[in-house]
Amino acid sequence: MRKRRIVELGLVLLCTNLMLVAATVPDQFRDVRSATTAPRADALSSAASQGLVPDIAAPAAGVAQAVVTPQQLQTATSAGIQVGADAMSPAASRSQTAQFAQTSIVAGTGPAEAQEGGMRSPPNDDCANAVAFSLYPGTPVVYTGDNTGATEDCAALSGGAYGDSWYKLTTYQTLHVAVRYCGTSPAFSNAYIVMDPTCPCSGSFVFASSWENSSCGDGNWSLFWNNLPAGTYYWPLLKEAGAEGPYTVTFSATEPPPSPECPAGSLFGQNPHASLYAGYTSAVGPGFEYTCYENFWGVTEKIGDIHWWGLKAAFDPYYGWQWCYSTVPLQFEIKFYLPGGTPGAPVASYIVTPTEVDMGPYWSYSNLLYYSVPELLPCVVMESGWVSIKSLAHPDGCVFLWVSSPTGDYSAYQQPAGSGYNQLGVDLSFCLTGGECPDFFGACCDDYTGVCNDNVEWGDCMPPLRFAEGTLCSELEPTCGIRGACCNAALECIFTGYESECDAVGGRFFPGETCPDFVCPEDCEHSIKLYDCYGDGWNGNTLDVYVNGNLVLAGITLPSGSGPATFTFMAA
Questions:
Q1: Angle, CA 148 vertex, CA 146 and CA 150 arms, to 5°
Q2: 178 in Cβ contact with 186 (< 8 Å)
Q3: pLDDT tens string for the chain (572 positions)?
Q4: 106-120 as b/e, with b when 16 or more CB fall inside 10 Å?
Q5: Does an H or E element contain 528, and which?
Q6: Where are the beta strands (DSSP E) in 364-499?
Q7: What distance in Å separates the CA atoms of residue 456 and residue 462, rounded to the nearest whole number?
């Protein structure tokens, strides 16, 4: 049976330019002591109880963004995240929890000493007297102290509003570095989220990649610098109301995992960006559903395995994206489609629970996750086409965000449930590999012609052909071939047969009807109106209209404005 496309006539609305920006920060720095105050030159973390950026946008369709580093623009919607490079927004937010070795080297700065007229400043009150140490992966360094009486040694931090005590750490390779206040009692309500590479301080701060106050379990802050280059850094320990007195601070480090790459010998591959550029929701979530599609080409063998990268997060309509703490694995629907400008007819569909490997810190709300399905059965036999990867409903509301790739042809799409395709303008990361591909045999039916053949291998019976594994043609249900009435130009019902037979005589086919009882309908004029909700036209997007598989309008578009643009065609 030939592929049919059914168009519901009426109003067609195309909303393009779907970038939603929730927070842009024009100043060089943003106050991170209190995430709700106006932009200023402080460099502190927010002590908000929710631990989330409060100005994240509510859900809306389209491409969205979220903060990853202070140099990156943030927005967030249920459609996904995308990173820009035009603003600094280091407000506190929940992030990943790193795992570190248990062995440690313990040293202390000692409590502040009393002096006449008040409290003497801590011995590491200025960066020149910073507590110095070397930091190696797998060996945390723990310090205890008291920052009572600390004064400010770096005006670029707060302009004299707060005090600081200093630690000087030296690393000898690129590392993921964590600074934790775990065990401090009472818990400190705030923390500086910057390091400075020089002393006296330069103000050229190295901002933390992320920070959160949940993983310690006692309300204390944990700060993370991902991929911190080898060097010497000065970290100021904040003193202000709510962050003053005895403390415990732990410095620890891990080696970054190897760069994510497709397996050697992959049939097709698009590696992910080295750091988060964009992640697009492809999931059945609580109150929303999106499906993402990516294309492939040049495959010369059967596809037996599939691998991909993404994030696992949870979306809150008010707070935006959050870390997904659930240990329940995601289940996925994977589908392959025939090639074309957009995904064609589905060829194969699988429900899988893939292997999940944590690749380490990647984004404030999720580590990068590597998924793989080592056995797709039956194997896919396609040289080119499309694939969709979508997580299914999760008991704890966790969803999958498909991570972008710097390679490809910029043809990926995201489709909200019940809507059309939105071209993303980026590519998505995945790999196709071979594998053990046993042959599957069965009946192969061409519903268009009514011809059926037994004992056909599945790879030789791709859509629009219909395959039934382990079945004979005589056992097919429904039987092979779709019969119907065939009408000529004189509106006479000339015979009942297969669509191929009707096409051969130039007739019009009506499946399921029979001659001579069927009354052939006359053509009438139909119209379709195109609109655009942003008022800038369809930006090159077009629409084809088919009636019973016949193209009646090709490449219609709205070149500019809001519309409507009206097109008409004749059909019964």
A1: 105
A2: no
A3: 333 333 333 333 333 222 222 222 222 222 222 222 222 223 333 222 122 222 222 222 222 222 222 222 234 467 766 543 222 222 232 232 222 222 222 222 333 333 333 456 899 999 999 999 999 999 999 999 999 999 999 999 988 889 999 999 999 999 999 999 999 999 999 999 999 999 999 889 999 887 888 889 999 999 999 889 999 999 999 999 999 999 999 999 998 877 789 999 999 999 999 878 899 999 999 999 999 999 999 999 999 999 999 999 998 887 788 878 788 999 999 999 999 999 998 989 999 999 998 887 776 667 889 999 988 888 888 999 999 999 999 999 999 999 999 999 999 999 999 888 999 999 999 999 987 788 889 999 999 999 999 999 887 888 888 989 899 999 999 999 999 999 998 999 999 999 999 999 999 999 999 999 999 998 788 889 999 887 888 877 888 888 877 788 888 998 888 888 999 887 77
A4: eeebeebeeeeeeee
A5: strand 524-532
A6: 366-373, 385-391, 398-405, 413-416, 422-423, 427-428, 430-433, 441-446, 451-457, 466-469, 483-487, 493-498
A7: 11
* Residue closest to 375 by CA, chosen among 436, 331, 329: 436
Q: What are phi and psi of 55, to 5 degrees?
A: -105, 25
Q: At 286, is the secondary structure helix, strand, or coil?
A: coil
CB-CB neighbours of 544 under 10 Å? 13
Using CB atoms within 10 Å of the CB of residue 513, give its burial: 0 to 12 exposed, 13 to 18 middle, 19+ buried: middle
Strand-pair partners of 437: none
Mind spelling out the 3-state secondary structure of 162-222? CEEEEEEEEECCCEEEEEECCCCCCCCCCCECEEECCCCCCCCCEECCEEECCCCCCCCCE
Which residue's structure tokens are 């770096």?
A: 154
d(CA 110, CA 123) in angstroms, rounded, equals 8
Q: Which two tokens stand for residue 235?
A: 């970290």
Half-sphere exposure (CA, 13 Å, Cβ side) for 562? Answer: 3
Closest CA to 537 of 9, 63, 12, 14: 14
Question: For residues 486 and 513, what is the distance between their CA atoms, to the nearest angstrom?
Answer: 9
Is the pTM here over 0.70, yes or no? no
Q: 289: how many CB neighbours lie within 10 A of its CB?
A: 19
CB 349 within 8 A of CB 334: yes
| Pair 43, 205: CB distance under 8 Å | yes
**Cβ contacts of 500-508, under 8 Å, gap ≥ 24:** 500/448, 500/449, 500/450, 508/548, 508/572
- Would you list the DSSP string of 7-21? ---SEEEE----B--
Residue 393, phi-psi category: left (phi > 0), alpha (psi -120 to 50), beta (remainder): beta
Q: Name the phi and psi angles at 156, rounded to 5.
A: -65, -15
Query: Nearest-5° angle of CA 229, CA 235, CA 240?
Result: 150
**Length reported for the chain:** 572
Sign of CA dihedral 403, 409, 410, 416: negative
